[in-house]
């Protein structure tokens, strides 16, 4: 093919909406299926101050109906606040405000 034929072919592609960059090069990134989880305590420092073994309503959101502590990969809580939550849940359990296990 001569240079003129190559130029004509490129111009035809551009008229049709095809660009040479789309056909060659890096593929597009995949979109994530899931929304990134955000730590609710990092986002709201006032809520972080409410983490206490006496605040049963808050702590119950982070335990299952069987009494297990929900892991941070599910709740989206940061590592720092997950440690604080686990400590306060253990305190509440030892006093008897939360169950160790539900039958």
Describe this structure in words.
Belongs to the bacterial ribosomal protein bS18 family. This is Small ribosomal subunit protein bS18. Binds as a heterodimer with protein bS6 to the central domain of the 16S rRNA, where it helps stabilize the platform of the 30S subunit. This protein has about 100 residues and is mainly alpha-helical. It has a domain at about 45-95: Ribosomal protein S18 (30s Ribosomal Protein S18). It has 7 helices and no strands. The chain has helices spanning about 5-15, 20-25, 40-45, 45-50, 55-60, 70-75, 80-95. The longest helix is centred in the last third of the chain and has 17 residues, at about 80-95. It is rod-shaped and about 85 Å long.
Q: Helicity level, as a percent range?
A: 40-55%
Largest sheet: none
Q: Based on DSSP secondary structure assignment, what is the total number of beta strands?
A: 0
What structural category characterises the helix and strand content? mainly alpha
Order of helices and strands: HHHHHHH
Tertiary shape: rod-shaped
CATH class of one domain: Few Secondary Structures
List the total number of helices: 7
Report, as a whole number of angstroms, the end-to-end distance. 80 Å
Q: Pick out the low-confidence regions.
A: none
For the record, what is the CATH homologous superfamily label of one domain? Answer: Ribosomal protein S18
Average of the residue pLDDT scores = 85
CATH architecture of one domain: Irregular
What share of residues are in beta strands? under 5%
Subunit structure: Part of the 30S ribosomal subunit. Forms a tight heterodimer with protein bS6.
InterPro entries: Ribosomal_bS18, Ribosomal_bS18_CS, Ribosomal_bS18_sf
Protein name: Small ribosomal subunit protein bS18
Function: Binds as a heterodimer with protein bS6 to the central domain of the 16S rRNA, where it helps stabilize the platform of the 30S subunit.
């Amino acid at each position: 093919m001569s240079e003129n034929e190559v130029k004509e072919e490129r111009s035809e592609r551009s008229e049709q909406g095809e660009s040479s960059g789309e056909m060659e090069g890096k593929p597009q990134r995949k979109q994530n299926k899931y929304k990134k989880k955000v730590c609710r305590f990092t986002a709201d420092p006032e809520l972080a101050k409410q983490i206490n073994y006496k605040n049963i309503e808050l702590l119950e959101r982070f335990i299952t109906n069987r009494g297990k502590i929900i892991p941070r990969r599910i709740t989206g809580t940061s590592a720092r606040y997950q440690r604080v939550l686990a400590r306060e849940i253990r305190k509440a359990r030892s006093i008897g405000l939360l169950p160790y296990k539900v039958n």
